[in-house]
Amino acid sequence: MSDGYFQRVAANTPSRLWINNPTGPEIDLALAQGAAGSTTNPTYGANLLRREPAYARQVIESVVSNAGDVDDAAIAVLAQRQFAARITDRFLAVHEASAGGAGFVSIQGSPLVDHDAELILQDARADRKVAQNATPKLPATAAGLLALESLVGDGSPCIVTEVFSVAQLIEANERYLRVTARTGLRPPFFISPITGIFGDHLRKVAARDGIDADARAMELAGVAFGRRCYRVVIERSYPVTLLFGGARIVDDFSGLVGGRTAATINYSTVEELVALDPAVQSTIDEPMPNGVVAELLDKFADFRRGWEYDALSIDEFEEFGPVQHFRDSFVAGWNSLLAAVGEVRAHQVVS
Question: Which CATH code of 3.20.20.70, 3.40.50.170, 2.60.120.10, 3.90.930.1 fits the domain covering 5-350?
């Protein structure tokens, strides 16, 4: 293995790379860079239909042919599992070599049922059966956190995503602690503060509301939030691995190095960092550039609500602006997968 940026990060810090929504070739390329895990989300099917159309369609056709008399929604869920299974197969060696401490691959179901804890739980338990390193990924909403309690009670590894507030971070950790205190089981537990997409949301709000905010401050909003989440975890000794997600720029990885954390990034961002080959620096405890946090707190109510410990109630998690912004992309991606399922089924009927 070459002594590249990610190899030096792994050798000199406890921080780790995960790969997000990879194509087949990108799975192996990421493993060669030392990737310790992989994430998928509800846009994965649409992503593959765009970047690996022949493979994605073949999977959908196979599922349609073998699934029996079920609706398009069920077919989409089954196809999502098949897409993820290709990754679990390739990361199984990492999982086994780490004695079950790494090599996890997340599976996240339909965002159209995110309001229903029982349906989330049902899908997550089925996702867990895909492979020993398959890991359910749940939204940090009232319904998702109810499902989390049951999964932790099962002893299942879990990833909590769509985290844009300290309140969500704290609530998810406290529920994990309550369940583990009762059961004595402490399965691997990850929480994903979403970084670059936080900046996307703030730029949308700035354009909508005519807010004159510094472009670089908005770009770094997620890095600032990620560092704050890390401090909360350290201060409270939460038994969680932060898995930073939603990267948009290299800072969403390089600006969060140094802790026992991970960041999941697209392979295009891996390539950027490999080409830049920056020095490995422990950045996660560094203060943000002067004035960045103050400006964001002053100009954006959503950033302020995400920053403060108790600015959101559990019932407000799902409707929080950046959560909705992220979820909208999930719904659009899932609908694209559903449309492809419908096309395949219609073609098979005609044939």
Answer: 3.20.20.70
Residue 2 parent element (H or E): none
Question: Is a pLDDT exceeding 60 seen at residue 351?
Answer: no
Quote the strand ranges of the chain, DSSP E. Answer: 16-20, 37-39, 104-107, 134-139, 158-163, 189-193, 241-244, 262-265
Write the CB contacts of 266 (distance below 8 Å, at least 6 apart in sequence): 19, 20, 21, 247
Q: Which residue has the tokens 């799975």?
A: 27
Please state the separation of Cα 65 from the chain's center in Å.
Answer: 31
Report d(CA 326, CA 162) in Å as an integer.
7
Residue 350 binned pLDDT confidence (cut-offs 50, 70, 90): low
Domain locations along the chain: 5-350
For 96-139, the pLDDT digits (tens) are 999 999 999 999 999 999 999 999 999 999 999 999 999 999 99
* CA 277/CA 130 separation, integer angstroms: 36
| Alpha-carbon span 138 to 48, nearest angstrom | 21
The H or E element that residue 285 is part of is: none
Q: Who's near 61: CB < 8 A, 6+ residues apart? A: 344, 348
Predicted TM-score (pTM) of the model is: 0.96
Output the six-digit token pair for 195.
Answer: 């970084």
